[in-house]
Structures are given as structure tokens and as C-alpha cells.
Specification:
Layout (H helix, E strand, L loop, with lengths): L14 H9 L5 H19 L2 E4 L3 H13 L11 E5 L27 H8 L3 E6 L17 E2 L3 E2 L15 H8 L5 E6 L5 H6 L3 E4 L19 E6 L2 H11 L7 H8 L20 E3 L13 H15 L3 E3 L7 H4 L2 H4 L1 H18 L9 H10 L1 H4 L1 H4 L2 H7 L5 H25 L4 E5 L4 H7 L3 E8 L5 E7 L5 H15 L10 H5 L1
Parallel strand pairs: 2-3, 2-6, 9-10, 9-11
Antiparallel strand pairs: 1-3, 4-5, 6-8, 7-8, 7-12, 11-13, 12-13
Organism: Chenopodium quinoa
InterPro entries: Amidase_dom, AS_sf
Pfam family, one: Amidase
Length: 498
């Protein structure tokens, strides 16, 4: 694909390839940004993956080009366009609204640490990615995945009728559809892993606290994490290296997790033979058995064979204690604990804003009640918000739920991993997400194929806290052995008829 007279194929280009093109004068950052802006203008009316573009993106690209011309290289992301989820604060001309009109006009007092570090690494913040509004917390059971009032309904770029998942739907759709080089999402329960899986992207959910959550709209300090969504494992690792680390503004969590960061960063674990010697656990019930004899199940068995051929040691037919309870967030108490955390966290966030039309959860509920045509509250409701707002005097109950969730972690996933000396658990699709969510554990999903309808699915590698090096080695080894990802074809029968 030619670009402004330059012979460099931008579509599917990795960070490494882009930097090589920069150094060979085959591409400028301005040309790259213009390409993505044009693609957003063309496809976003259909995909609804971007809430707004940065009006300064082209000027920032020009600055990056000038810096490079002057021999100044800021970092691994210098000149790389990034979309960040519309819950991650940016101190610029863009808003941070969680996809809701209730926060339009709000101004963050300072930039999120994650974005500060992206900029320090030379990244160009291209815009804000769409999401399931308010992380779907407004109405967990009724709000559609990928829908927000500001952006509309996010659309899967492979099959229009397929679930884009969420809440970081726009971040995943954007990289999959080549609207941007790389993106940043957040994950509390499934918000990085699920949309990445469903949109044929690589999603890296870091250990909670590995990346600062400062000036990111919160749900739960126990479960919230910020991480990259990209097209390749290597791009995810490049982004992670820039954003991970201790932050006094998120002191407790980042102090606890920054000790996991290896000297020299994470790039050293991008090894093609990364699967060699890895002990990978397989929990067939219910992660595999629930697939029955589907295309995905058959592909999973083929991938297990590939893992073995690449030197992995598979420990099969394992069990996680109380797995059925863990997988039901209403039954385990996870949802109740999340709503309680949100009730306490959101007023603190809102009060910290430089200016805002709402300053409390009650204000947000009132805004939605007064603007049902904007927020479609008559259709999707806000029962999650109302339930959270009505929580009072039940601190002891919440403490008991959190203690129970910790017990499920220790007696379930942690025990299985430790007893079997596993480096990672490998599972198809997204069913294992609650295991990671309630424990703050890391995971990486890698594109693994497409079902009989053309809908993507991924291979999920998950592990104990701080095991990102092992997960990266495993995921990269699998990716390089399979190269399963392919870009969406917007003129394909699946797309046209989906």
C-alpha cells in the first residue's frame, strides 16, 4: 500500500517495522498519522471504535519528525500513534468521559501516569478509543458490549453481527482494523482480554499494580489494571516496557508490583523458542469441555500439538477448586464487591477533577434520568449505578466477600499452579477470565484462528502475579509458531452479510 508517494505498507506494520521505515526515510510520522486519521474518517462511522481524535495529532507528528531529523530519539515509541481508552486521563484538548455525556466538559487536573509515560517514550496520542460505557457497570446485564452514548455501538471488524466484547472494545477494534498502530485499554474483569480475543488482537492484562491507575476512571483498586492491546505480542511488550513501574500517585499497588519488573525490561523475553521447557496447565472442565466439538475446540487441540512440538510440557486434565463458583461473578460475590469499590472510588475521582458537571454517583444517576434520550436509559437502564449508590452500612459484608474471593484464589488457581509447578495455564477463548480478575493475575491472549463463521478466537496464557516474563515467552513462542492473525477484509462475505 503506497502512502503519500512512499513505498511502505502501513497496514499491519509493527513498531519495529515503522521505526525501520523512519530510519530509511521511507515514512514520516506525519504520513503515518495522516494515514490513520484518513482510515478513521473512512471506517469509524461504521466501526464506532474512536470517540474523538486528538486535534493536535498532526502537530505532534511534525514535532516527532523534527526531533528525529535533529538526531533526537525519545524512546521505543517515538513517533508511534497510540489510541487510549476514553477512561484514561489526558491533559490536552480531548475529554475523558467513559463514553458518557455526563462527563463531557470535565477536565482532569493532570495527565494519567500511563499517558505521561507514553509521551515520554515519544508516542503520539492519536485519540480516545470507545468502550462499553462506564465499563458496563451502569447496567451489567443490559448494556450491550461495545456501546456508549458518545460513540454508539462498536462493531466487530471481522463479522458485523459478532460481539465486539468489552469494555475496551474500541481499543481492540482500532488495532484490528488498522485505525492505529497500538492502543491502551483497561481491565477489571474482562476488558482487555475479551475484546482482544473477539477482535483478533493481542491483549496483555498486567498484574494489578504493575502499571499505575492514577487519573484513570476507577472501578476497583483490587482488580483494575491498565495494559496494551496491539496486533502482535512484541508491540504489547514494547508498550508495557514504557508504562510499567512505581508511581507515588498509585503508591500501594505499584510499590507491591514494581518489584516484579525485571532488570532490562520485558523485551528480553521475546524469544522464538520461548515455549521450550514451559510447563503449561490445561483445565479441560469447563474451559475446553464447554466447547464440545466446535471449530474452536478442534483448533485448540491442534494448537496443543504445536505447543508440544515447540518443547512445552503439557500438564493435562487439571482442576481448579470451586471453579463453577469462580466463573459466576454474581455467585462468588465479585460483582457486589466491585459495585462497593466503585461507590467509594468514583466520588474521589470526580472530586479530583479540575472541573466537572458531575461530582458524585448521585449526580451521574440524576444526569442520566434527566437525559434519557442521550444515554438511552429507558432502553438500557442504570440498575448497576443505582445498586452501587444504595449500598450503605454493609462494610462487614464486603470484607467477608473479599476474604472469600481471596480464599477462592488461594485454594483454586494458586494451588493448582503451585502444586503442578506450572509456568502458565493455557485455555481457549475467554472463559477463564474470572480466574484472573478476582486474583489480580496477569494474562495474554494471542489470535488463534477463526471459527466457521469467520469470528476470531484467541489462546489465553495466564499465570500468577508477576509472571509476565514466562507469559511473554509462552505467548510469543506460540504466536511465532502459528502466525494465526489476519487483518479483517471489509469486502468479505462475512463482513457484508454479518
Amino acid at each position: 500500500m503506497a502512502n503519500n508517494g512512499q513505498d511502505f505498507p502501513i497496514e499491519e506494520a509493527t513498531i519495529t517495522a515503522i521505526h525501520q521505515a523512519f530510519s530509511q526515510n521511507k515514512l514520516t510520522c506525519r504520513q503515518l498519522v495522516d494515514y490513520y486519521l484518513n482510515r478513521i474518517e473512512t471506517l469509524n462511522p461504521i466501526l464506532r471504535a474512536v470517540v474523538e481524535v486528538n486535534p493536535d495529532a498532526q502537530a505532534l507528528a511534525d514535532v516527532a519528525d523534527q526531533e528525529r531529523a535533529n538526531g533526537r530519539q525519545l524512546g521505543a515509541l517515538h513517533g508511534i500513534p497510540v489510541l487510549v481508552k476514553d477512561t484514561i486521563g489526558t491533559k490536552d484538548k480531548m475529554g475523558t468521559t467513559a463514553g458518557s455525556y455526563a462527563l463531557v466538559g470535565s477536565v482532569v487536573a493532570r495527565e494519567s501516569t500511563a499517558v505521561e509515560r507514553l509521551r515520554k517514550g515519544g508516542a503520539v496520542i492519536l485519540g480516545k478509543a470507545s468502550l462499553s460505557e462506564w465499563y458496563k457497570l451502569r447496567s451489567i446485564d443490559h448494556l450491550p458490549n461495545g456501546w456508549s452514548a458518545r460513540a454508539g455501538q462498536g462493531v466487530n471488524p471481522y463479522v458485523k453481527s459478532a460481539d465486539p466484547c468489552g469494555s475496551s472494545s474500541g481499543s481492540a477494534i482500532s488495532v484490528a482494523a488498522n485505525l492505529v498502530a497500538v492502543s491502551l485499554g483497561t481491565d477489571t474483569h474482562s476488558s482487555i482480554i475479551c475484546p482482544s480475543d473477539h477482535n483478533s488482537a493481542v491483549g496483555l492484562r498486567p498484574t494489578v499494580g504493575l502499571v499505575s491507575r492514577a487519573v484513570v476512571i476507577p472501578i476497583s483498586s483490587r482488580q483494575d489494571t491498565v495494559g496494551p492491546i496491539c496486533r502482535t505480542v512484541s508491540d504489547c511488550v514494547y508498550v508495557l516496557d514504557e508504562i510499567a513501574g512505581f508511581d507515588p500517585r498509585d503508591e500501594e499497588a505499584t510499590k507491591r508490583s514494581s518489584k516484579f519488573i525485571p532488570q532490562g525490561g520485558y523485551k528480553q523475553f521475546l524469544k522464538e523458542d520461548g515455549l521450550k521447557g514451559k510447563r503449561l496447565g490445561i483445565v479441560r472442565h469447563p474451559f475446553v469441555s464447554s466447547l464440545h466439538e466446535s471449530t474452536v475446540a478442534q483448533a485448540f487441540e491442534r494448537h496443543l500439538k504445536t505447543l508440544r512440538e515447540k518443547g512445552a510440557i503439557l500438564v493435562d486434565d487439571l482442576e481448579i477448586s470451586n471453579i463453577d463458583e469462580i466463573l459466576n461473578p454474581h455467585h462468588s460475590g465479585e460483582i457486589t464487591a466491585m459495585l462497593a469499590d466503585f461507590k467509594h472510588a468514583i466520588p474521589e475521582y470526580l472530586e479530583g477533577l479540575e472541573s466537572s458537571p458531575v461530582r458524585s454517583l448521585a449526580d451521574i444517576i440524576a444526569f442520566n434520568d434527566n437525559n434519557p434520550e442521550l444515554e438511552r436509559t429507558n432502553e438500557y437502564g442504570q440498575d448497576g449505578f443505582i445498586e452501587a449508590e444504595n449500598m450503605q452500612g454493609n462494610e462487614e459484608e464486603i470484607e467477608q466477600i473479599v476474604e472469600h474471593l481471596d480464599k477462592l484464589n488461594k485454594e483454586g488457581f494458586e494451588k493448582m499452579m503451585e502444586d503442578n509447578k506450572l509456568d502458565a495455564m493455557v485455555s481457549p477463548g475467554t472463559m477463564a477470565i474470572p480466574v484472573m480478575a478476582i486474583g489480580g493475575y496477569p494474562g495474554i491472549t494471542v489470535p488463534a484462528g477463526y471459527d466457521e463463521h469467520g469470528i476470531p478466537f484467541g489462546m489465553l496464557f495466564s499465570g500468577l502475579k508477576g509472571t509476565e516474563p514466562k507469559l511473554i515467552e509462552s505467548a510469543y513462542g506460540f504466536e511465532q509458531a502459528t502466525l494465526a492473525r489476519k487483518p479483517p477484509l471489509f469486502d468479505s462475505p462475512e463482513w457484508l452479510q454479518g
